[in-house]
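Hi Y.,

Following your request, here is the sequence exactly as I used it, all 183 residues.
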Amino acid sequence: MSPQSHTITLAVPPEPTDHLLGSEHARVTLVEYGDFECPSCKVAATTPKLLLERFPNKIRFIFRHFPLLEAHPHALLAAEASEAAAAQGEFWQMHDLLFQNQAHLKDKDLHRYAVDLGLDLARYTAEMDDHIYLQKVREHMEGGRRSHIRATPTFFVDGVVQDISFGMKGLHDAVAGAVARGG
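Below is the corresponding structure, written out as tokens. Let me know if you'd prefer a different format.
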């Protein structure tokens, strides 16, 4: 891809508090801003896992929240639930459950997923009632806005946005190219 004068870049670099899959020290970083209620995000959810399998120890995948509040009324609460699960070491399991059950993201559904994951329910309920992870989700959203994100999912490979409007092949190609260059 030729460099463009208006290339959109990642405003917030990877942080220790990010949700990470793959090798922490991988040379290539894939960041997704996603929304648990977004149908396109659900379709895209398998792609990072396929890339991690294709390039073991070569890439790290980071998921950040970007709930589209106007379009997806349950996405914000789902993001908070994933953070409550993360606090108990179950972020990725909750991530997968939320996408698998995308049509069922009301409070009672989220509570059922917490039960299914074996979370400490008293802690989960208290944290959800107090919205203690709302600030973290809002920080992700603000970082996304500073990165000029308007839709989900939005992917960045090594800090540069990738056009996936024609499907995920472009993302696969961008990751493969970054791995070939050594990150």
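The helical segments are 39-44, 46-54, 75-86, 91-100, 107-116, 121-129, 134-146, 169-180.

Thanks again,
Q.
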